[in-house]
Write a structure and sequence with these properties.
There is one protein chain. By secondary structure, the chain is mostly helical. The chain has a domain at 54-95. The protein is 42% helix and 0% strand. The protein has three helices and no strands. The protein has helices at 32-45, 61-72, 76-89. The longest helix has 14 residues, at 32-45. It is elongated and about 70 Å long. It starts with 31 loop residues before the first helix and ends in a 6-residue tail after the last helix. 0% of the residues are buried. The model has no long low-confidence stretch (mean pLDDT 80).
Length: 95
């Protein structure tokens, strides 16, 4: 066995691998919608499903203002009680 033989690094099982398809002149390129449909079908076959999330832009002034208003309305005692509970049940803070 060669001592310096290259080995791929160990990776978590959930890493998505992308395959690059090279098209030559004898094989026309598939339309984008068809490629996306095929990719979704391959992912569904692996038990995965696409999920799109639309979230407010945190850089927008209106969003920042709305968040600040909601934070100002929080009950500080209730929030501290919730934080105490979270810390009590948290596994990350355990020695």
């Amino acid at each position: 066995m060669v001592a310096n033989a290259w080995r791929p690094p160990l990776e978590p099982a959930g890493v998505t691998r992308y395959t690059v398809t090279r098209y030559n002149e004898g094989m026309p390129m598939t339309q984008a919608a068809e490629r996306m449909r095929a990719m979704r079908a391959r992912r569904r076959a692996r038990g995965l499903r696409e999920l799109r999330l639309i979230v407010p832009d945190p850089q927008a002034a209106t969003v920042r203002r709305r968040v600040a208003q909601q934070v100002a309305r929080l009950n500080q005692a209730a929030e501290q009680d919730a934080m105490r509970w979270i810390e009590a049940v948290s596994e990350f803070d355990a020695p």
